[in-house]
Amino acid sequence: MRSRSPYSSNISYAGPGPLTPAIKVIVIACVILFFAQALAPEAEVWLGLWPNAVIHNLWIWQLFTYMFLHAGVGHILFNMLTLWMMGCELERMWGTAFFARFYVICGLGAAITHVTLAVLFGGRLAEAEVVGASGAIYGVLLAYAMYFPTREILMSFLFPVQARYMVLILGGISLYMSITNSGVAGLAHLGGLATGWLYLRGRRMRLSAEIQYQFSRWRINRARRRFDVHPGGRDDRPRYH
Is 134 a catalytic residue? Predict the structure, then answer.
């Protein structure tokens, strides 16, 4: 199967393959902390995302550490499986450094979104704990859909859905869960989704500007060579052949 998108073209799908370096580190960290939670439940007080603690106690590290904790076996399995399926190909395409930066930024964006809304609306949002890599993974899902929009994914391992529609469906579900207060941090999911889109859009705009700049420089240098013009002015010194 081949996919076309505004970001890449004619990229063949060969499956997620083995774990890539950044994803391997993320999975290992999540598994270690999952067992740490079971052995020392009080770790969640320090490492989970508690908006009131971030706001009033300035426990800023929770904006980062929460994305390595999970609420149960099903939670961590689903998140790590999704990260492997969608993230490995992106990491191979982008490189480990860019993927790791993108992942962390999406996770931070999800956390900041949740804490900001907790400040604005208070109540249950400010008091409830948030854990899980879902916010960062929603950013990865968004990126996957942008690069491979027509690639089919088996939702719930049953229904083939194109990646672009899968992201819309999952975004709609997160919005519904946010409205109904289902106990799932849907707002954080949407925050990760939006952060991923803004980051990639900004990168694309910077890349476009760089291409235009380099093209303008090429045209100027070409004109200089054509008319024998040098940066310091026209060279009128005698030439010997």
Answer: yes
Asked if residue 177 is part of any domain, the answer here is yes
Q: How far apart are CA 65 and CA 49, in angstroms?
A: 8
How many structural domains compose the chain?
A: 1
189 noted as active-site residue: yes
CATH number of 36's domain: 1.20.1540.10
> Contact at 8 Å (CB) between 166 and 140?
no
> Residue 76: how many CB atoms within 10 A of its CB?
22
Instruction: Give the range of the structural domain holding residue 75, as residue numbers without chain letter.
Output: 2-206
Q: What are the DSSP calls for 146-209, one per residue? A: HHSTT-EEEETTTEEEEHHHHHHHHHHHHHHHHHHT-SS-HHHHHHHHHHHHHHHHHHHHHHHH
For residue 79, the SS3 value is: helix
The rounded average pLDDT for each run of 10 residues, N- to C-terminus, in the chain (241 residues) is 40 69 96 94 91 92 95 92 93 95 96 90 80 93 92 78 89 80 71 92 65 61 63 50 45
Residue 29 counted as domain residue? yes
Q: Which one from 3, 70, 174, 189 is the annotated catalytic residue?
A: 189
Q: What is the C-alpha to C-alpha distance for residues 151 and 1, in angstroms, rounded to an integer?
A: 8
Residue 125 placed within a domain: yes
Q: Does the residue 109 lie in any domain?
A: yes
Q: What's the whole-model pTM score? A: 0.78
Q: Which of 134, 156, 178, 208 is an active site residue?
A: 134
